[in-house]
Amino acid sequence: MATKTASNDLVQLFDDLVRAETRLYNAVSDTLRREHGIVATQYEFLCYFRDHPASRIADVATNFAAGVGAISKGVDRLAARGWVDRRPNPTDGRSVLVSLTDTGAAIVAAAEVTFRRQLAELVAPSLDDDQVKIVGALLHTLRARLGNDRLGMPVG
Length: 156
Prior knowledge:
Elements: H1 2-36, H2 40-51, E1 55-56, H3 57-64, H4 68-80, E2 84-89, E3 92-100, H5 102-123, H6 129-148
Antiparallel strand pairs: 1-3, 2-3
Helix pairs in contact: 1-5, 2-5, 3-4
């Protein structure tokens, strides 16, 4: 019986985790769109390029557990808006390096204030600071394990 209970707990964990993530992500995205004209995915990309200048598309795909094609299309949209630059990789002619432009840096700086405020407004009523640290550490452990084993990575 303990096995069935543990199994049910895992199913409930999966359901709660996915639904909470979806609602949190959508709420943050709606606020970013309304206040800055960007969505959460664009915000995450801009933060990544701010923190990892001259990144390869493949590295971005690994970080976001997404396909290279999807990341490349997302980067194309950012480049079309003048938020990132793509330039040939001098050490590997098959890839490009992506960096944030000054315009992209200004957008991500302004959006970050909104992003942090919105997260606090959404999470604080349910979790105190200690609980946020505990849940964050547990999810970090799970994410690292899945990442180390390359589980859930798209093919191609």
